[in-house]
């Protein structure tokens, strides 16, 4: 259930390089998608713990950024409010992929 202060997108981070990169990434995404709310996991923790936080945040979408994804120049996108598979997007096209995934999520609710 979304609340007025809920994030649209929760950023899950794994690895030291991805953690450092994620701060600049979220700033860029906020500039590119000013109508969207983002929450970045800053509490550390295992991926399972971070996904629990993402679920509690009310976000419709998780963006997963690990050191492996960063090395390949991609981020993974996982819908949180519906049964759907995880997909990947090049970091250069991440804003468009997020907007598309959120539109699909909104159409299915």
Automatic annotation (TrEMBL):
The keyword Ligase applies. Pfam families: HGTP_anticodon (PF03129). Gene3D superfamilies: Anticodon-binding domain. Keywords: Aminoacyl-tRNA synthetase, Ligase. Residues 9-98 form the Anticodon-binding domain. GO terms for molecular function: aminoacyl-tRNA ligase activity. This is Histidyl-tRNA synthetase. It comes from mine drainage metagenome.
């Amino acid at each position: 259930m979304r609340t007025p202060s809920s994030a649209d997108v929760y950023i899950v981070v794994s690895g030291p390089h991805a953690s450092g990169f994620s701060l600049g990434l979220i700033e860029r995404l906020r500039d590119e998608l000013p109508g969207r709310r983002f929450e970045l996991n800053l509490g550390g923790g295992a991926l399972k713990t971070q996904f629990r936080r993402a679920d509690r945040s009310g976000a419709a979408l998780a963006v997963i950024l690990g050191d492996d994804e960063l090395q390949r120049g991609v981020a993974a996108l996982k819908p949180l409010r519906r049964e759907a598979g995880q997909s990947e997007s090049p970091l250069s096209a991440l804003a468009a992929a997020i907007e598309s995934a959120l539109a699909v999520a909104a159409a299915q609710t």
